[in-house]
Amino acid sequence: MKTLSIVSTKGGVGKTTLAVHIAVAAQKAKQKTLVIDLDPQGSAAQWAKDRVRLAEQHGRWFDTPLDVRRLFANDLVEEIAAAKRQGYQLVIIDTPPHADFPAARAVEVADLVLMPVRPGYFDLHAAKATINLVHDMRAHAFFVVNQTPHTSPGMAADAASYLASKDITPAPVSITMLQPYVRALRDGLTAPEIAPEGRSAEEINALWSWLAQALINAPQKKVVEAAPEPAPAMLDDPFARLRRPIIEGAA
User: Fold this and answer.
1) N or C, where is the chain less crowded by C-beta within 10 Å?
2) CA count, 13 A, side-chain hemisphere, 81
3) What is the residue extent of each domain of the chain?
4) DSSP assignment, residue 232?
5) Considering the entire predicted model, what is its pTM?
6) How many CB atoms lie within 10 A of CB 34?
7) What is the DSSP letter of 231?
8) CATH says 2-217 is which class?
9) How many CB atoms lie within 10 A of CB 13?
10) Residues in Cβ contact with 246 at an 8 Å cutoff, skipping those fewer than 6 apart
């Protein structure tokens, strides 16, 4: 099992949007995936509830339901150990926009840290706090340039060059500010689910393909084993009613 933490000490950079898009892409690639929502706003967890509600309302059936659990950072190590026992292959941690204990804990337990950064001047300046955090904790980290204006594609390359000078490796994919990302989330979906042939789908699929290999190559963090029972989650599995029965012991 691998753990991916999506971390930025600045708000509004698209952490949750990336978290749920990566999670759904991983699920579609047959990776049993858990999203842990550490953000007090609970945006990922709320989206998961809406995904269920809208699916039932519109008669949709998900072959790849998404598990999202809200937690306090104090319970993170125990929940990761429990997820491993429960057969998850990937845990994605969505973090709040502060350089405090939840972000530090998420970096500490992650096999790989992904830092979304918008390409604007103030965003690049604010990224220094996140860069300092991952450097201080010697994390295996990459940044992804996110929400690049589609009319200014050169901004992504400029931002990547600046951030690379801070000794953080860039992801080979940048994410553009496109309408399908907004529309999809509103409908309880992801951009590739509403526009599978569009540019947003191409970006997310490319990001996941790269991440999948990066996670394989990432050194495995050792997580201390927790108690036999998993830590209680603040959000029950929102897809229980949509999940097909699973036969114990089946492949």
Assistant:
1) C
2) 15
3) 2-217
4) P
5) 0.85
6) 24
7) P
8) alpha beta
9) 24
10) none
